[in-house]
């Protein structure tokens, strides 16, 4: 039985996320378990999910799931937006709830989203694709610096 679709194609958060995520070399969007995911050969981001250990808890439809290097995950540990996602957390994935403010009361910006996607992409993509990303950046086609301006929400 297929999973029910748990997102709206017109959701402004998803529209903005597509704009940034699909700017990475060979990135495509695939629906996985009823949610949008972004991948090359493997996923580098998901939108939406739950908190590990809380299956009956509220859905986090605007949570960005990314696979970061361990040092970046540790650096985000005290951020109130960050959580260990259900299913993906034990494999090193990090969730960032885009609906919540950080400790200083600021909401996530598209620049922050692009930086998270860049790090996750570099963690999961092949060396060839990371090299292509670096070549694009050298030409001024950096998905981080060309991300939309302002807060996500």
Describe the structure.
This protein has 153 residues and is α+β, with helices and mostly antiparallel strands. Helix content is 28%, strand content 21%. Strands 1-2-3-4-6-5 form a 6-stranded antiparallel beta sheet. The longest helix is centred in the last third of the chain and has 15 residues, at 110-124.
Main-sheet strand order equals 1-2-3-4-6-5
- Shape verdict: globular
Tell me the distance between the termini.
Answer: 33 Å
Per DSSP, what share of the residues sits in E-state strands of 2 or more residues?
A: 15-25%
H/E element string?
HEEEEHEEHH
Number of helices, counting only DSSP H or I runs of 4 residues or more: 4
Helix/strand-derived category reads: alpha+beta
Radius of gyration, Cα only, in angstroms? 15 Å
**Average pLDDT level:** 94
Give the strand tally: 6
| Low-confidence regions | none
Characterize the quaternary organization of these chains. Answer: single chain
Q: In percent, how helical is the residue content?
A: 25-40%
Largest sheet: 6 strands, antiparallel
How are the elements arranged and paired?
Blueprint: H1 12-21, E1 28-32, E2 35-39, E3 43-49, E4 60-67, H2 70-75, E5 82-83, E6 93-97, H3 110-124, H4 127-138
Antiparallel strand pairs: 1-2, 2-3, 3-4, 4-6, 5-6
Helix pairs in contact: 1-3
């Amino acid at each position: 039985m297929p999973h029910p679709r748990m997102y709206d194609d017109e959701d402004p958060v998803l529209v903005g996320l597509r704009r940034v995520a699909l700017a990475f070399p060979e990135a495509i969007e695939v629906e996985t378990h009823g949610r949008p995911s972004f991948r090359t050969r493997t996923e580098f981001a998901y939108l939406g999910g739950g908190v590990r250990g809380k299956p009956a808890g509220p859905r986090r439809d605007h949570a960005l799931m990314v696979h970061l290097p361990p040092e970046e995950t540790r650096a985000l540990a005290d951020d109130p937006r960050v959580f260990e996602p259900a299913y993906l957390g034990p494999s090193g994935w990090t969730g960032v709830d885009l609906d919540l403010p950080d400790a200083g009361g600021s909401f996530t910006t598209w620049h922050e989203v692009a930086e998270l996607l860049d790090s996750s992409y570099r963690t999961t993509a092949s060396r060839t694709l990371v090299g292509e990303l670096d070549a694009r950046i050298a030409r001024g086609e950096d998905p981080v610096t060309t991300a939309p301006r302002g807060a996500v929400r």
